[in-house]
Design goal:
The complex is a heterodimer. By secondary structure, chain A is an all-alpha fold. Helices cover 86% and strands 0% of the residues of chain A. Chain A contains nine helices and no strands. Chain A has helices at residues 2-28, 35-45, 50-75, 81-119, 122-128, 133-171, 176-186, 189-215, 220-252. Chain A is elongated and about 65 Å long. Chain B has a domain at 1-99 and 213-261: P-loop containing nucleotide triphosphate hydrolases (Rossmann fold). Chain B is built from ten helices and ten strands. Chain B has helices at 3-8, 62-69, 92-98, 117-128, 134-147, 163-175, 193-210, 221-227, 245-249, 254-257, and strands at residues 22-33, 36-47, 51-55, 77-82, 85-86, 102-105, 181-185, 213-217, 230-235, 238-243. In chain B, β9 (230-235) and β10 form a beta hairpin. In chain B, α4 crosses α5 (134-147), α6 packs parallel to α7 and α7 (193-210) packs parallel to α8. Classes of the chains: A mainly alpha, B alpha/beta. The interface between A and B is medium-sized, with 14 and 21 residues. Chain A: The chain crosses the membrane at residues 38-63, 83-103, 142-168, 195-215, 227-247. Chain A: Keywords: Membrane, Transmembrane, Transmembrane helix.
Chain lengths: 256, 261
């Protein structure tokens, strides 16, 4: 019985989020645009997330290199380390880890911010003050997350590759130019473009789920906490599902 | 409506004879959430410069009523005429225009946490009237803060202010557009008795200054006594009684009497 009711809840929520996404495309993208608020959100969401994304990217590149090295040494192909690390970071690990960090930081903050605005009637107050809260709060945040995550991913990938270079240099001395030439020669547009494009969808999912959870927050401060938490959980799951779908799609399109 | 009520309750039209044209006319309002009927055949009219207090138990539908009037909730049936225009039939743009004439003081104040007091006050001005110059906006903000005696708080954040100060700022923000009607959702709830009386007197002073009409939702009987020209009792979704504070206070109907004990 509980499985049935949970399945019902899941389907119900999926339907509601789909409707919320539909509302974003039908109302949120219509003029008049909240350009000033969009720029503020791009700054808060993009610029303020950069230190965390950069730090995690650097550690990820460094650790990945150190973990891969012994295996490659045992096969006698340690010279391929930059190639392997480069492809892993750019195609998969960079976009997914950056998106997960982004979901944890931005998804929860959007869920909590809009949730507390909802329970303290600030969203209603905005409506009364001649402002469409959906356009002002939701559309700006969803567009900002969709635009900022690809940029953060590119920057995160670059810092991650630098971390990988440091990792390579721990055991052997490698010239930085030689390292990056080897990495870039192994990469093609079909590695970079799908990886960056999928982060637009990841960003959209993080923004949309955070806004949906916050906008539908109830039951006071407890509800706000729950909104923030479930925004992170749901957007993280969606990131993996979208990743799976994009891999299948790029396979079908012959981009692998 | 039971027999007891039939015999003792004050009928809605018995006391209030029209003295001027009504600014709000609510006709047969019906609103339900799921199976829970909150408003059922509710009717009310508010005259110019009149203060009408709506009394009722928690969850009786008082806040739902004023949220329907401002267009935050859509009733299932019935009409809400504000200056002769039906709010329930308005589109988004028409509603935005109508809302420049209706102020709403939220129970939780609804002051934007991320903005300073000045930005909070500027927000409705800039959103409703985007052609205002900086000097004009500054002048209106100053006047609004002077009205509530808090000019020194303009650059402060809401977190730095006390509950009473936040209520005053919320009142200043509500009045900044000079609305002709103000809807108050429990204006003194959560305040200490002294601050609550200060808010009562501020409401009355500003009402006289700007000649506004008001609907006030309140459980605070001192506030009701101080402010109300007329008291409406909302029970089981309907207008159970309508009269002056004195008349309802002396009613022998136990359903009315319980609010005045």
């Amino acid at each position: 019985m509980s499985i049935i009711s949970e399945a019902k809840d899941f389907l119900d929520q999926t339907g509601q989020i789909s409707r919320f996404a539909g509302r974003f495309f039908s109302h949120g993208l219509k003029p008049k645009f909240e350009v000033k608020e969009l720029l503020v959100q791009c700054y808060l969401i993009g610029y303020k997330s950069f230190p965390l994304v950069g730090l995690t990217g650097f550690i990820m590149g460094l650790v990945l290199t150190m973990q891969l090295r012994p295996s490659l040494v045992s096969y006698g192909v340690q010279s391929e380390l930059p190639v392997m690390v480069g492809i892993a970071i750019v195609r998969e690990i960079g976009p997914v880890i950056t998106a997960l960090i982004f979901a944890g930081k931005i998804g929860s903050s959007i869920g909590a911010e809009l949730g507390s605005m909802k329970v303290t009637e600030q969203i209603d107050s905005m409506d009364v003050s001649g402002t469409n809260p959906f356009k002002y709060l939701v559309a700006t945040r969803v567009i900002a997350t969709s635009l900022m995550l690809p940029i953060l991913t590119i920057l995160g990938d670059a810092i991650s590759l630098f971390g990988a270079y440091i990792g390579v240099n721990i055991k052997s001395v490698t010239n930085i130019r030689f390292f990056f030439v080897q990495v870039f020669e192994s990469l093609s547009y079909s590695d970079v473009l799908p990886a960056v494009i999928k982060t637009i969808f990841f960003g959209f999912a993080v923004g949309l789920v955070g806004c949906y959870k916050g906008f539908n927050s109830t039951k006071g401060t407890q509800g706000v906490g729950r909104s923030a938490n479930s925004a992170v959980v749901l957007s993280s799951v969606l990131i993996f599902i979208l990743d799976l779908l994009t891999v299948q799609l790029t396979n079908l399109l012959g981009l692998n | 409506m039971d027999m007891d009520k039939e015999t003792t309750a004050v009928q809605p039209t018995q006391y209030h004879q029209p003295i001027s044209e009504p600014v709000i006319v609510i006709e047969n309002l019906y609103k339900k959430f799921g199976e829970n009927v909150v408003l059922e055949d509710f009717s009310l009219s508010v005259k110019r410069e009149e203060n009408v207090v709506v009394l009722g138990k928690s969850g009786a539908g008082k806040s739902v009523l004023i949220k329907c009037i401002i267009g935050l909730l859509k009733p299932d049936k019935g009409k809400i005429l504000v200056f002769g225009e039906d709010i329930t039939m308005m589109d988004e743009d028409e509603l935005a225009t109508a809302r420049t004439k209706i102020g709403f003081l939220f129970q939780a104040n609804a002051i934007y946490d991320s903005m300073t007091v000045r930005e909070n006050l500027e927000f409705p001005l800039r959103r409703h009237w985007n052609n205002l110059g900086e000097a004009e906006v500054g002048k209106m903000v100053k006047e609004a803060l002077e009205n509530v005696g808090l000019t020194h708080t303009s650059d402060m954040m809401p977190a730095e202010l006390s509950g009473g100060m936040l209520k005053r700022i919320a009142l200043a923000r509500t009045l900044i557009l000079k609305p002709e009607i103000i809807l108050y959702d429990e204006p003194t709830t959560g305040l200490d008795p002294i601050t609550a009386r200060e808010i009562d007197s501020l409401i009355l002073t500003l009402q006289k200054k700007y000649k506004t009409s008001s609907i006030i939702i309140s459980h605070d009987m001192n506030c009701v006594k101080n402010i109300a020209d007329r008291v409406v009792l909302l029970l089981e979704g309907k207008c159970y009684a309508d009269g002056t504070y004195k008349t309802l206070e002396s009613s022998s109907d136990p359903k009315i009497n319980q609010f005045f004990q």
